[in-house]
Amino acid sequence: MARARLALLPAILAFCRCRLLGKRLKSRADLERYQQKRLRHWLKRDVPRVAAYAGDRVQNLTDLPVISKAELMTAFHRYNRLNLTAGAGWAHFAAKTQPDGFYIGASTGTSGNRGLYVISDAERAAWLGTMLAKALPRFPFERARVAIVLAQDAALYRQPGRGGLITLRFFDLNEGLASLPDRLEAYRPDTIVAPPKVLRHLAGLARSYAVKRLFSGAEVMDQTDRQAIRAGFGVEPGEIYMATEGLFAVTCPQGRLHLAEDVMHFHFEPGPEGSGLVIPVISDFSRKTQIMARYRMNDLLRLSDRPCACGSPLRVVEEVVGRADDLLDFPSDTRGLVTVTPDVIRNAVLDASRDIQDFRAEQTGENRLRVLLPDDLPQAAVEAVRQALTRLFARLEIAPDVIIERCHLEPPLEKLRRVRRLFTGGA
């Protein structure tokens, strides 16, 4: 009980700090001054305490190299203060054991390369406090009963605070979707956080969920997902953008996705030429156990240049497009190798016909694209997809072989990626 009370304090402090900053930071200049102050302290006090940066006199973020996931995992012990090797971390994870006062977790590994992370109990509590401050604008003046539905270990979400003003319950997707509706109905949540495929599944059932808030997480939410979820629940779904590396963005009350720049610094590298997309390089100045400094993410974002009506200076993400792993490359007689981003394929297929509610598109060869459509889709819609892709590829001056198949499309247990690169050759 004493440890639970101790762990609750960082959550309360993080919650209060996030709310106070929301009132204090009125402009980008305010935000940048705050970030620079936190970064200076972090670079001086915390970053040099891991072996990777020990002895370095770091004045600015740009003094540090940009690192990738592969580099981090290869020398995992050099980036955390426990000197924990990746092998030891995976052993803890497999045995479901934890070093005293710390938590070890892992990503789902949808790209075939699972990520590992280690945080302290205090950091875990602070993460929860920050997320609650951003996702529940009326808390603590309004009680919250939150259901978190993910295919991931539950320990990260088992925090102090059950009962009273807030109750959290984790629902493991590894137990399957069949029993989930009954379990949710018995729990009676007012807030559900789940992948869009799960929210769509629940929205299509004749069940009574008296929810006030819905958040999509863990996967890209397409417009067809959003429309189906909104229609089924009568609630506009928001988004929580987070990953192994941290909490990146949360939807504000105005429905726009704001980066968590009050706990993390973002630098952006350009995505594929002409796409308007960016790849985030993150530095999480709220973490001290495992240092994430100048860490290149594998995501593709479309940033907005429109200010938000909520008044927050935190940058707005127009769309989380997908993963850089899923950029498709096709040869062109006139342009060399042409890169096609996931959103371009996704929009072409979904815009081809209103009958299309789901699909998969996979690059299976150097110049081959396989498109899987629902088995009950009308033939006219299938032909509309073929024509839409033909027009798209003609504009891009490429001519991949397009193979369209109809089959039963079951939501996968792992993260749903509707557009995927399966071909490992080429660029």
Global outline: globular
Q: Which architecture name of the largest domain does CATH use?
A: 3-Layer(aba) Sandwich
Taking all Cα atoms into account, the compactness measure Rg is 22 Å
**CATH topology name of the largest domain:** Rossmann fold
Strand order of the largest sheet: 4-3-5-6-7-8-9-14-13
The first-to-last residue Cα distance is 55 Å
CATH superfamily caption of the largest domain:
ANL, N-terminal domain
Overall tally of domains: 2
Could you say which structural class the secondary elements and strand pairing correspond to? alpha/beta
Spans of 5+ residues with little confidence (pLDDT < 50)?
1-6
The number of helical runs is 10
The description of the largest β-sheet is:
9 strands, mixed
What is the residue-averaged pLDDT?
88
Provide a descriptive summary of the structure in words.
The structure is a single chain. This protein is α/β, with parallel strands linked by helices. It folds into 2 domains: 323 residues, 3-Layer(aba) Sandwich (Rossmann fold); 95 residues, Alpha-Beta Plaits (2-Layer Sandwich), CATH 3.30.70. The chain is built from 10 helices and 20 strands. It has a 9-stranded mixed β-sheet with strand order 4-3-5-6-7-8-9-14-13, sandwiched between helices. It has a 4-stranded mixed β-sheet with strand order 19-18-17-20, with helices on one face. The N and C termini lie far apart (55 Å).
